[in-house]
Protein: YdhK family protein
Amino acid sequence: MRSLRRRSRIASLLTVGAVSTALVLSGCTVDEDSDQSSEDTTSATTTASQQSSSSETGTSESSAPSDSQDNDAHQGMDHSMDGGAAPEGITVDAHPTYPVGSTVTLTADHMKGMKGAKATIAGAFSTYTYEVDYTPTDGGKPVKNHKWVVQQEIKDAGTERIPDGTEVTIEADHMKGMKGAKGKIVSSTDQTVYMVNYEADGMKVTNHKWVVEDEIKPANN
Structure:
């Protein structure tokens, strides 16, 4: 009888031990699964965040207009806001209709906002002035009937008036791609030619080159 009880107690202990071991192993498995699930969730969240960030950056870049689009939209109007000094060798007109410092109204429309703008004469010169066609050196579209370049802004121009149709090299840098460009004379004039300062569309333009006398009228007219 005592032996039977001992065997029963041993069997009970073995059963309890087996159950405890199973529970421990089960707990480890659950913890490992939980850790793996947490790692997977973290990885997925990080990946989604990276993809979202990449997508937002791409949208921002693609929505910004390129430099080339902006240059094409302003072709023919992209003059410098400061034209700089008059070219070397040009002759100052001693008795211009509009002396330096005069206030005038512009009738030219070379640039947006120019026509009708009030201006101040910054320089008056006696030379030959040309309307030209040219192809920009930066690969831009050919420019037709650009007004104006003066004799002193044309390579090897000499002192004589250049005939219409003559092929020339332009040394003026009024606009991007103009300096060094190959061009052709469209027309010319010997009117007094002026540099002017004016304001249009909130922008101040100084020493704009050029306007001829026919493109100016007194400010009170």
